[in-house]
């Protein structure tokens, strides 16, 4: 199986950014853990702070990268604002699982609204770095 892990803005600071909310593990730590836990999965990793770059990557994964079976997406703050990312998810054939390290429903009101949830296969929120592993399990 080929699964892409796509992360949005500020996720490059994971491990240093508000560790009391997002934990101490870096994106690289998460990548290593996933590769170790799922040796049979061919993973692609992508992170961008830019909305347009995330839209372009979803399009690329959907139509230009051969054999992608599913996508795990932490759109970070764009979750709550981006119709463009929601449209990109709708436009591609693969299932997309929305993930959040923090429990977005236990935080500020604006984080309770996800523009991407209605077009995702499912959403996992609040279990720290384990959300990526749970999402991969949901896809395989
Ligand atoms: C986040 C939650 C978002 O509300 C926030 O903007 C993030 C990270 C999470 O993983 O908990 O940047 O997606």
Q: Secondary-structure blueprint of this entry?
A:
Layout: E1 2-7, H1 19-22, H2 27-37, E2 42-47, H3 51-63, E3 70-74, H4 83-91, E4 96-100, E5 122-125, H5 130-139
Parallel strand pairs: 1-2, 1-3, 3-4, 4-5
Helix pairs in contact: 3-4
The structure holds 1,3,4-trihydroxy-5-OXO-cyclohexanecarboxylic acid.
1,3,4-trihydroxy-5-OXO-cyclohexanecarboxylic acid binds at residues 10, 74, 76-77, 79, 100-102, 104, 111.
Could you please describe the fold and organization of this structure?
This protein is of the alpha/beta class and 140 residues long. Helix content is 34%, strand content 19%. It has five helices and five strands, in the order βααβαβαββα. It has helices spanning 19-22, 27-37, 51-63, 83-91, 130-139, and strands at residues 2-7, 42-47, 70-74, 96-100, 122-125. Strands 2-1-3-4-5 form a five-stranded parallel beta sheet, sandwiched between helices. Helix 3 (51-63) packs parallel to helix 4. The longest helix has 13 residues, at 51-63. 34% of the residues are buried. The model has no long low-confidence stretch (mean pLDDT 98). The chain binds 1,3,4-trihydroxy-5-OXO-cyclohexanecarboxylic acid. 1,3,4-trihydroxy-5-OXO-cyclohexanecarboxylic acid binds at residues 10, 74, 76-77, 79, 100-102, 104, 111.
